[in-house]
Design brief:
Blueprint lengths: L1 H21 L2 H10 L8 H17 L10 H23 L9 H34 L4 H21 L2 H60 L1
């Protein structure tokens, strides 16, 4: 009964993970049609690649006992193919339209550098984790704890990585709040000052008109 339940839960988990890994397909299909990355970030896909690499390594017999984590290996191996495909598509369409112009060529180089800056640390982290787990720990139990802990942290970062998109808006929220506070505080005062100035101008105009009438009347009397 326990093995059957474990198998059912494993299949359900793999199905959910497959849906998660394949979710960006619609986004990249739109990018392929438009031949542009549409300025979206590559960071979530590189973090997801690291997550899949670590969990695949975690499920291999080198870390786990025999093939007890075979479902983990299969789904994350498939996830590696998904994420690599997404990153390669992103790299291919990272330039803007019209590669002939020098400005767009510079944008292409910058885009490729951004991809490299995000992918290279992922490879380094995986290689370091694999090396430490192989040469520093000599039993499956401690290897599983170490690799599983690193993979767990990576999973948390992966699910939080889309927040990179909203980070500029989060930074701007305090400034928007400050603007609203200043507006609510000074909006009435500004209206009063303007109306006061307007009243003074009207009174000055009336006084000047009255003075002009008096001068005209005095001139008429003299004549």
């Amino acid at each position: 009964m326990g093995d059957t339940l474990r198998l059912v839960v494993g299949v359900m988990g793999n199905a959910a993970s497959l849906l998660l890994f394949s979710a960006p397909i619609l986004t990249f299909c739109r990018g392929i049609r438009k031949k542009s990355t549409e300025e979206f970030s590559c960071v979530p896909y590189t973090i997801a690649l690291l997550n899949c690499l670590l969990y695949t390594w975690y499920g291999l017999p080198v870390i786990s006992c025999r093939w007890e984590k075979f479902p983990v290996v299969t789904i994350n191996g498939l996830g590696i193919h998904f994420e690599l495909s997404f990153i390669l598509i992103y790299l291919w369409f990272t330039s803007a339209k019209g590669k002939a112009s020098s400005l767009n060529f510079i944008c292409q180089i910058i885009g490729e550098m951004k991809v490299a800056i995000t992918v290279i640390p992922v490879i380094l982290v995986f290689c370091i984790t694999a090396a430490i787990s192989l040469f520093s720990f000599h039993d499956h139990h401690h290897r599983k704890i170490f690799v599983g802990s690193v993979a767990l942290v990576t999973s948390v970062v992966m699910y939080g990585s889309p927040l990179v998109v909203v980070l500029p808006n989060l930074v701007g929220i305090p400034l928007w709040i400050l603007q609203l506070v200043l507006y609510c505080k000074y909006r009435k005062r500004g209206i009063k000052e303007e109306s006061h100035k307007w009243d003074l101008e009207i009174r000055n105009e009336e006084k000047s008109k009255q003075l002009q009438l008096v001068i005209n009347d005095s001139n008429n009397d003299k004549s």
